[in-house]
Every structure is written in C-alpha cells, then in structure tokens.
Amino acid sequence: MATSIWYPLLNIKTLGWDPKVWEDPMAFKPDRFLKNGDEPVDFDITGSKEIKMMPFGAGRRICPGYNLAMLHLEYFIANLVWNFEWKKPANDVEIDLSEKQEFTMVMKYPLQVHISPRI
C-alpha cells in the first residue's frame, strides 16, 4: 500500500506515543534525537525511510517549505543563544516537568529564566 494512501488515516498522536516506535514515549527525553548509545541517530522527519513522526507530513504531500522552516528554526535558536546570556533565576526552584490539560498540554509550572543581552 502506498504511503500517500494510508497516512492521512493515521492518528499522529498515537504514532508519537507508540512504545514499539519510541522507548518510554511519555517521558521527556530530548536527547533521544541526538544519539543512540554512542552512535549518532540518523533521524528522518520526511518519512522517506520510516515514519516515526510527521511534523511536516510525509510522502507526496509533505510540506514544500519544510527545508526553509528548518533553516529558519536553526537560525532563530542560534541567534537566541548567541545574543543573550541565559541564567537560572536566583530563587533556586527545582524544575518540575509535570503537565496540566488546557487547550493543549502545558507545563503545570512554566520554566523561568533570566535573560540578559550579551555585550
């Protein structure tokens, strides 16, 4: 069956929560995209090798601007890191990653940071 036929019927949320695809899928582990043990992960967001997540769709119907979106995202994050100094607030509050349901899932206690421009 062709990818373009079945993927619109796929529930994207359940794909991201599938323990067969992701180890401990409900845990916040951003480093899972960086490396697998000692080897770097060849992560594919286009769905051409395998479909683990589809932020821009997949197959024939993939967003035509995903390369530009990724370029702008990397540029934006690099400028934030380069132009600002990021520090934890002085109140020494432990970071709590628990969630609460609003329109979407959000952090129960939002992160706080002290940002100052680099001179």
Describe this structure in words.
The structure is a single chain. This protein starts with a helix and ends with a strand. The strands form three sheets. It has a two-stranded antiparallel sheet. The protein has a domain at 3-63. The chain has 119 residues and is of the alpha+beta class. The model is unreliable at 1-5 (pLDDT under 50). The protein contains three helices and six strands; from the N terminus they run ααββαββββ.
Short structural description:
The chain is of the alpha+beta class and 119 residues long. Helices cover 23% and strands 15% of the residues. It starts with a helix and ends with a strand.
How would you describe this structure in keywords?
alpha+beta; two-stranded antiparallel sheet
Q: CA-to-CA gap between the ends?
A: 57 Å
The side-by-side strand order for the widest beta sheet comes to: 1-2
Kindly provide the radius of gyration, computed on alpha-carbon positions and rounded to a whole number of angstroms.
Answer: 18 Å
How much β-strand is present in the residues?
15-25%
| Morphology call | globular
User: How many beta strands in the DSSP annotation?
Assistant: 6
* Count of DSSP-assigned helices: 3
Question: What's the layout of helices and strands?
Answer:
Elements: H1 3-6, H2 12-16, E1 35-36, E2 39-40, H3 66-83, E3 84-87, E4 99-101, E5 105-107, E6 114-117
